[in-house]
Write a structure and sequence with these properties.
The chain is built from eleven helices and 15 strands. By secondary structure, it is an alpha/beta fold. A hairpin with a 2-residue loop joins strand 1 and strand 2. The two termini are 30 Å apart. It binds adenosine-5'-triphosphate (ATP).
Length: 328
């Protein structure tokens, strides 16, 4: 899927059978504020899809609409190929979610809390409950701490118990809102490994984050939100490739080199200590080899040559006009 950089109304994506989530023109207004504004998401089945955006950009509101927790003001969406909200009863049992942390009782153990959740699900057969609880606890690495009271759990353990509650049934899609928010590096690593684990079993995972590093480490795809609007989406590789490349050449005479590259028609030519760099327009007539040839023919000594692509961070800052937290 090619990245779509969208600045004036996102195109409505085609409804593809292979997509776990599709939204078209999804919009939520709170009074005058458009918290989510015409969002068209396309989340391929089997992807680990990062929903990235600064605080307040509309991620949680989008997720709450996807899950039917609030109604959109406009737009439509489907989960696992089923039109929502009409097919909620068929689709939602196959969707696990972690939004705003489930309410657990502090004085009950993790396992007892989970048992309460399991008992509340209509198809939770009693005879198989023990196996379900043990399976979910094992999945999130809480077997040893299963009988500890919830109030003694670390933030990471609490978050993992939340995930366990989402995993009591086999799921085709997991929707996780900021699953590592507020966690220390160790807890973050644990959740990240768990996500990789779940994804390797074929579960589609849609997770929101305001941390670019989170998305880069675990996701195959990403979408970027800013002020309620979807600015871009695609595979991480496609998003990276969408940024404009620059050629950077080590030279003995940057001033002369600047003139030569300018005459070639390159834009944004910048000379710095021992180097000259310029923008390489994608598909344009001038590539790095041609730059090098022109410089040498013009009497400039070339000591190094590199094509530099902007990082994802550069791209996202350019799209949103805001800095992202790139590390915790
Ligand atoms: N119930 C509500 N009533 C009024 N405004 C709301 C409501 N819920 C969200 N908003 C507003 O909608 C915008 C988007 O909020 P949202 O929580 O979806 O963003 P977010 O990207 O998830 O940010 P964060 O990571 O901080 O939760 C914000 O301006 C927020 O104040």
């Amino acid at each position: 899927m090619l990245p779509t950089a969208v600045h004036s109304g996102p195109p409505a994506p085609r409804l593809a059978a292979g997509d776990a989530i599709v939204t078209e023109g999804l919009t939520k207004r709170f009074g005058e504020v458009a918290a989510v504004d015409g969002v068209g998401l396309q989340v391929p089945t089997g992807s680990v899809f990062g929903f990235l955006g600064p605080n307040g950009s509309g991620k949680t509101t989008t997720i709450r609409m996807l899950l039917g927790l609030i109604s959109p003001t406009a737009g439509s969406w489907s989960l696992l190929g089923r039109e929502m909200p009409a097919a909620a009863e068929a689709a939602l049992p196959r969707v696990g979610a972690l939004v705003e942390g489930p309410a657990f009782y502090p004085w009950l153990s993790g396992r007892d809390n989970l048992a309460r959740f399991d008992a509340a699900v209509p198809d939770g057969q009693r005879a198989t409950r023990t196996a379900r609880l043990d399976g979910a606890l094992a999945r999130v690495g809480l077997t040893a701490a299963a009988h500890k009271r919830y109030r003694a759990y670390s933030l990471g353990m609490r978050q993992r118990l939340g995930l366990a509650s989402a995993l009591l049934r086999p799921r085709d899609l997991l929707i996780l809102d900021e699953p590592t928010n507020g966690m220390d590096p160790q807890g973050t690593r644990e959740i990240r490994n768990l996500i990789r684990d779940l994804a390797s079993d074929g579960t589609t995972i849609f997770l929101s984050s305001h941390l670019l590093s989170e998305i880069e480490q675990v996701c195959t795809h990403a979408a970027v939100m800013s002020q309620g609007r979807l600015l871009a989406q695609g595979t991480l590789a496609d998003l990276r490739a969408a940024g404009e490349a620059r050629v950077r050449v080590g030279v003995d005479d940057p001033t002369r080199a600047t003139g030569i590259l300018g005459r070639l028609g390159l834009r944004d030519v910048v000379a710095s200590d021992g180097h000259v760099s310029a923008r390489l327009d994608a598909g344009g007539p001038v590539d790095a080899a041609r730059c090098c040839r022109a410089l040498v023919e013009g009497g400039v000594e070339v000591s190094s040559l590199a094509t530099v692509r902007p990082s994802l961070e550069d791209l996202f800052v350019a799209l949103t006009g805001e800095g992202f937290d790139v590390a915790r």
